[in-house]
Request: fold
Amino acid sequence: EDQVTQSPEALRLQEGESSSLNCSYTVSGLRGLFWYRQDPGKGPEFLFTLYSAGEEKEKERLKATLTKKESFLHITAPKPEDSATYLCAIVTGANSKLTFGKGITLSVRP
Amino acid sequence: DVKVTQSSRYLVKRTGEKVFLECVQDMDHENMFWYRQDPGLGLRLIYFSYDVKMKEKGDIPEGYSVSREKKERFSLILESASTNQTSMYLCASRSGVDYEQYFGPGTRLTVT
Reply:
């Protein structure tokens, strides 16, 4: 069974304190890995798609990387507005359904 | 930009009522999805649709049905709402080519 595990469950950072969020997965035949941001009471907002090991994507203070077993979302010099829950999801198989992790709640203090 | 809209942001219904949640996307996407999101359980797929009038069960379809009469619209129906269906409901869509899904703002449903 495809599984996605995100860690830690929650992370508190001081503004400017860089860190990484982890998403590990067990799957055969990964077709893609996705990162989303979700603000409280809102729908997930798409951030990145990664397709193959070694691939990297960047957007402002965020950089996503992918290996054969895990993905990292690196956040450089975070600001309070980066506070949100970050979701990781994978797609496998012919039906292309997404399997989500439970998310990491990031809190950035000013 | 992809836009997915949902009919209500907040909804309060009584046990036993029939509830309709509607979702509309404006990007001519073939695929549409309904999820529910609960604390500690994450997002769980209820139903999805690959085309008009087509539907497939997700991981937790019990107590729900869906309807897709037009390509842009996907409805989730709770035939007889129960308190354990209190949740955040999220609709998503994606094209037939790419895998990333785009989500609507969500409907917070409370069943009393």
About this structure: The longest strand of chain B covers residues 31-38. The interface with chain A takes residues 4, 31, 40-43, 45, 48, 56, 58, 90, 92, 98-106, 108 of chain B (CB under 8 Å).
